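Budget justification aside, the reviewers requested a transparent look at the raw inputs and outputs of the sequence design task funded under Objective 1. We therefore reproduce one unedited record. The lines immediately below are the structure tokens for a 220-residue chain.
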């Protein structure tokens, strides 16, 4: 067999990435000051990045696999700015997901399914990708007062900013027209943001958070 023919056959054997899309309520929390300067100059407030993000999937397909109603918590830790690499990733997937759904969500979140959003881009910045955990993920979506948890491991609760004089909730938003995750997000803060696990343990409560409803990603 010629080298060219062998290359063609090898390419045929590659696992084809199916068309996929997810629409999710998105809750992002990190260790930066409010607003997160990474959105403006790429560098975190304290020189390193810790993030716990909820993808509450309202609708989604990976090929013919339905992803509607599933939750994924994405935990990332980078010793410097994200683009400077050496990061660690741990994902927690709803234990309700069946085998096909689990494979689909792992492929998306680990960046193997390519597509839009942060997944493939962030994958290139990771040094360690830990084994995905299939667990009980509890999520309460309530805009800038949303919360989510993995019992005994993760506890996140966000809240809105309030006018210090009147006590009225403020409508604070950040718009990033060229953003690759979101274009506009509701700005809030973390009342709780903590994880305790064998590989990742930190508490960054009282820092930055965003809520974005109906955020969509697709691929490949």
């Amino acid at each position: 067999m010629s080298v060219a023919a062998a290359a063609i056959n090898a390419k045929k054997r590659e696992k084809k990435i199916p068309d996929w899309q997810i629409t999710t309520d998105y809750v992002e929390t990190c260790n930066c000051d409010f607003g997160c300067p990474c959105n403006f100059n790429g560098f975190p407030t304290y020189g390193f990045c810790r993030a716990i993000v909820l993808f509450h999937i309202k609708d989604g397909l990976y090929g013919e696999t339905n992803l509607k109603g599933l939750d994924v918590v994405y935990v990332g830790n980078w010793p410097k700015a994200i683009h400077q690499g050496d990061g660690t990733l741990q994902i927690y997937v709803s234990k309700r997901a069946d085998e096909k759904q689990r494979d689909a969500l792992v492929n998306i979140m680990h960046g193997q399914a390519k597509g839009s959003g942060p997944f493939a881009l962030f994958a290139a910045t990771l040094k360690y990708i830990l084994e995905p955990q299939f667990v009980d993920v509890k999520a309460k979506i309530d805009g800038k007062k949303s919360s989510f948890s993995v019992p005994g491991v993760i506890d996140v609760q966000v809240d809105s900013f309030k006018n210090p004089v009147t006590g009225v909730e403020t409508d604070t938003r950040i718009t990033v027209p060229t953003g690759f995750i979101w274009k506009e997000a509701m700005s809030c803060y973390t009342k709780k943001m903590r994880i305790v696990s064998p590989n990742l343990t930190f508490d960054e409560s009282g820092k930055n958070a965003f809520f974005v409803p109906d955020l969509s990603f697709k691929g490949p």
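The two ends are 31 Å apart (CA to CA). The longest helix spans residues 3-13. Computational costs for records of this kind are itemized in the attached budget.
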